[in-house]
Amino acid sequence: MATSGNSGGRQNVTISLSRQVLRKAKILAARRDTSISGLLAQQIESLVGEDEAYERSERQAAGLLDRGFHMGGIIRASRDELHER
Fold it and tell me: Where are the domains of the chain?
């Protein structure tokens, strides 16, 4: 991984791509009026954002399950009474 003295908390990285993928990436970046670096940065930032949102949702769902849900019913019998044979 190559680093640079860029300000703004950005760091350069080096990747290896096949010539065919690189050629297609150049075309795609040009169509989107950006560079390959910009294209990759957008995609990686999007992936990271999606992953963070998923983790937040997962924690929220686990918290709801830990607290449980009140369904409005009243339990009138003990567990032993319900399972008596």
Answer: 1-67
Token pair of 74 as six digits: 């009243």
- 28 Cβ neighbours under 8 A, 6+ residues apart: 39
pLDDT of 5-39, one tens digit each? 555 788 999 999 999 999 999 999 999 999 999 99
Q: How far is CA 49 from the centre of its chain?
A: 5
Query: Which tokens belong to 77?
Result: 């019998």
Tokens (6 digits) for 9: 């908390």
SS3 at position 57: helix
The number of angstroms, rounded, from the C-alpha of 32 to the middle of its chain's C-alpha atoms is 24
Residue type, 47: L
Element (H, E) at 56: helix 36-67
Token couple for 36: 């390959």
- In the numeric block, which tokens belong to residue 24? 């297609």
